[in-house]
Queue: 2 jobs
Job 1
Amino acid sequence: MFLVGLTGGIASGKSSVIQVFQQLGCAVIDVDVMARHVVQPGYPAHRRIVEVFGTEVLLENGDINRKVLGDLIFNQPDRRQLLNAITHPEIRKEMMKETFKYFLRGYRYVILDIPLLFETKKLLKYMKHTVVVYCDRDTQLVRLMRRNSLNRKDAEARINAQLPLTEKARMARHVLDNSGEWSVTKRQIILLHAELERSLEYLPLRLGVLTGLAGVAILLYLLTHYLLPYA
């Protein structure tokens, strides 16, 4: 099995693309949801965050106050790196657990929805394929203004705060162009899914695991039939 990192930009249509992949029966892991999960009370990352940043980052119910924590690390690279050092290992553990579940269920690939895939580059090395949901800037601007009821200035400020989609598209292995009709985008998704399903890149890992299991089975057989009777 292999991993596919999928990203996009504000108002590029990434959520709609993810829904189509799910309708096609694909396994999808939302890394943002996972990041919120690992900082819940009772988890190691939650305890470490409170130890490092203090109880002022807690809500009354014990949950992390994401706004307060965000304000604490805003424009402070050292604190941001410290927070990342706490949360990223836990996110990777959860990612591996979820991925292994899909592996056992026979999926050939898993899509990871990662908003900052190319900005942080932390998870890039695990991705066999990368996909960007792209749309041209004018389309992105119009969609964002309509969706969020923003004026042009505010919408442009939000778009400018992100890595440009043209740069993400340049770095990605696959680009889904969502600038035009949705039917055209949907056809691109279906074709990409078919390409990934046909790929044999999942075989090495699956064969390696099967070989390992076969080795364990043979060892157990030898132990039970030849060694244990003389014990």
Job 2
Amino acid sequence: MNEEDVSGVSVRNCTVSGTTNGVRIKTWPGSPPSQASNFTFEDIIMHNVSNPIIIDQHYCPDHQCVVSPSRVKIQNVTFRRIQGTSNDPVAVKLMCSETMACENVHLQDISLIMENSTATSNITSSCSNAKGVAVGLQNPESCLC
């Protein structure tokens, strides 16, 4: 496999409805060394989305992948002004590689609630090996440290 670096991706002013994933970055386990950097996702509305915000460095749809961690370095990722509804209680999933932590991840003004609910307390976020900051409104509460 000879994967190229990916940089400078912007997704703005979109509505995502009834999908499995909203805004996502994914890499395969055991992927060769490369970089994914300078991603911006902003002004996105989610309607009934299973994974509104997700970084998945353990992507393996058929569950028959190599066991070694992804070697893609993800950095400089911004999720800004993302709002709407999730149909999964874990609305923000930042699952980064054990050997290449995601760095400089920014969550800004995130407002997600469960589909068919007005409560904001029944929705969460989950982070693994993700480094960054959260500013402004954070619902669910950010897992970034």
